[in-house]
Amino acid sequence: MMRTRAAIGALGAALIGVGGVFLVLDLQPVQIAGLVLWLAAAVVLHDAVLVPVVTVVDLLLRRASRRLPTAVVAVVEAGFAVGALLTAMVVPELIAQARGPRNATVLPGDYDLRLAVLWIAIALAVAIASGVIVWRARRSGRRS
Amino acid sequence: MTEPQRVTRRALLGTIAATGIAAVGLTAGQSFGWLAPLNSFAPRVQGYGPQQVPVNTTAKAAGVVDAAQAADWTLTVRRGDRTEVLDRTRLSGLPHARATLPIACVEGWSTTAQWEGVRMRDLLALVGAPAASTVLVTSLQPRGAYRMTTMGPEFAEDPSTLVALSLNGRTLDLDHGYPARVIAPGRPGVLQTKWLSSIEVMPG
């Protein structure tokens, strides 16, 4: 097990190394600066927006029901992570759409509507999964 | 209830897998046909555009609307002093070939289409280009980083590299490079030069 983990870790480190080498070889300094800015913005978005919201949701969840199985909390958090990531991808598209795409074949979809449907679908999936988890926990609780 | 649980490794990995699958599954359909039905959030849609192919730069944006539709448009093929000037009639009269090739944009979308036109190597033969020639392809575009493109012999000699005149069975749309454009296998979309003006054999 440890050996497998070490091998996977080494492979990952090697791939990162290859990426780093090609980054320096293929990109101009100004492009690397742009990349660093983009990555930094991702960190800011994660730490300043996503993490506070997740923390608040988490606190509310734990207050609302202290008896919830941890698996339910995990499912809610996973659902929230999926929704948040796709929202972070779609919001720039909505901004670009509002500013006017550069031709009719760019951004042709109803992305706002689809994002709303996605959140509803996530909420449903989380509700169903949580229901199943709670039901199974109660059933096994009765048995023991 | 015990102390608030830490996030377990299984939950963390499961969440990462779920976000990865959702993000790829709902966008990769702009490039991969079998995922196209799931494409909900990608900026492009396969088959969405004139002649079922998306457009990156329109003729208007490239500033070629008049030049590309001019009745006296010609394609010049040149090697040193040897020059062949082909108008649309002559170009259409040359032997045609078909190729099924994608426009694969560096922006991330990709759509495969049916192209028909004259093989690049047949055009180069008109001016007696030697084997392994590199060519310089020039567009009617007055400006832009991709106005001129060099094409190595590995592309120029390939039988599926065409100066395309039609796309998906109809005359090339103005936004797809009318009257003639390059389509070659294995090149990024920006190098598939549209609105051709000249093809020049570089001195070897």
Question: What is the compact description of this entry?
Answer:
Chain A has helices spanning 2-26, 29-64, 70-99, 111-143. Chain A is mainly α and 144 residues long. Chain B is elongated and about 75 Å long.
**Could you report the average pLDDT of chain B, rounded to the nearest whole number?**
94
Query: How are the strands of the largest sheet of chain B arranged?
Result: 2-1-10-5-6
How many alpha or pi helices of chain B?
A: 6
Please identify the structural class of chain B as seen in this structure: alpha+beta
Low-confidence stretches of chain A: none
Spatial gap, N to C terminus of chain A: 33 Å
- Please summarize the sheet with the most strands of chain A: none
- What kind of sheet is the major sheet of chain B? 5 strands, mixed
Write the layout of secondary structure elements.
The complex is a heterodimer of chains A (144) and B (204).
Chain A: H1 2-26, H2 29-64, H3 70-99, H4 111-143
Helix pairs in contact in A: 2-3, 3-4
Chain B: H1 9-25, H2 59-62, H3 65-69, E1 74-79, E2 82-87, H4 88-93, E3 97-104, E4 110-119, H5 120-126, E5 135-139, E6 148-151, H6 153-156, E7 162-167, E8 170-171, E9 181-183, E10 196-201
Parallel strand pairs in B: 1-10
Antiparallel strand pairs in B: 1-2, 3-4, 4-7, 5-6, 5-10, 7-8, 7-9
Describe this structure as you would to a colleague.
The complex is a heterodimer of chains A (144) and B (204). Chain A is 86% helix and 0% strand. In chain A, helix 2 packs across helix 3 and helix 3 packs antiparallel against helix 4 (111-143). Chain A has 144 residues and is an all-alpha fold. The mean pLDDT of chain A is 90. Chain A starts with a helix and ends with a helix. Chain B has six helices and ten strands, in the order H-H-H-E-E-H-E-E-H-E-E-H-E-E-E-E. Chain B has helices at 9-25, 59-62, 65-69, 88-93, 120-126, 153-156, and strands spanning 74-79, 82-87, 97-104, 110-119, 135-139, 148-151, 162-167, 170-171, 181-183, 196-201. Chain B is of the alpha+beta class. The radius of gyration of chain B is 22 Å and the shape is elongated. In chain B, the strands form two sheets. In chain B, strands 2-1-10-5-6 form a five-stranded mixed β-sheet.
